[in-house]
Amino acid sequence: MSTLNDLPLPRALDRAIEAELRRIIDMKTKPPGSLGRLESLALQMGLIQRTVKPRIERPAMIVFAGDHGIAKEGVSSYPQEVTAQMVANFLSGGAAINALSRSVGMTLEVVDAGVATPLLFPFPIDHGYERLSLGLGTRNFAQEPAMSREIALEGIARGAARVRHHASLGTNVIGFGEMGIANTSAAACLMSRLCDLPIDECVGRGTGLDDRGLAHKRDVLGRALALHRNEGDAIDTLATFGGFEIAMITGAYLAAACAGMTILVDGFIATSALLVAAKIAPDVLDYCVFAHASNETGHRRMLAHFDAAPLLQLYLRLGEGTGAALALPILRAAVAFVDEMASFESAGVSNKAD
Length: 354
What we know:
Blueprint: H1 18-26, H2 37-49, E1 60-66, H3 81-92, H4 96-104, E2 107-114, E3 129-131, H5 149-168, E4 173-179, H6 183-195, H7 211-227, H8 234-241, H9 244-258, E5 262-265, H10 268-280, E6 288-290, H11 299-305, H12 322-340, H13 344-347
Parallel strand pairs: 1-2, 1-4, 2-3, 4-5, 5-6
Helix pairs in contact: 1-2, 2-12, 4-12, 5-8, 5-9, 6-7, 6-8, 6-10, 8-10, 9-10
């Protein structure tokens, strides 16, 4: 893949059944609109699935892991080796996303998008892991672009391919998580450039920087943005500042929308990938449900950029897809009331007076 023409591009939702969906929702035994966001979610999922009886089938979470050369600038409070260690933790079932995915019934897959440290697993891996590495971490974008445009496009292609695999298995609801030391630096720079915001409004503490570390991070990222002034389109911006995992999530969004999936959007890093995807194909947003408002500085500004109302506000800032997993039960409730709740006619309940 080497051109924009090769990218999977979603179409806007077909709204042919919207009036019928609204009628079904409004005729349930309740005052119109009284189930609030559940009603708009049911409508959105019905339109995405092109049915008046939306379902949730084989919900999946894909966690993409990759390292960032910008870590060499001391912008994280954790060493880069933690990325590989956390991948091992995911695969042994011990991370937060493992517990939360199990609790809500999501299939979990971990993808090595470009982890720098060799992955050594002291246990057998027979499923739930894919090695699609684009390299041993990106280059240091404080000195040079993180990757070439061609590599960014290849990352998009590989992320899209994983989603198409899950679509072939029947998945129609999907979320994307990430792991990568220093990836909040990449996300902050993507946000600054794509949302046209000063870096001070985008950069946060990430894995827990103190005030001195935060000031250093702002300085490093400010200089990096000044170094790279003319990246061109969104793909070039991704190549300049992004990570291999962010590139793959970008492609995953596009392919999920093309496949007619409902997409649960996680926090700061995952939303930075959506910034890129939405620049490429704005219609991808029709398929997105913003799961939560992260406690990472900048995420709420990202949400405002999309005019998005997140389902949850739990002060999370872990990543991994944890916020997206926690939102799945709300989607289950939305489809349940459409499927299981009686209508005024079927229950013999009088509707409001004309």
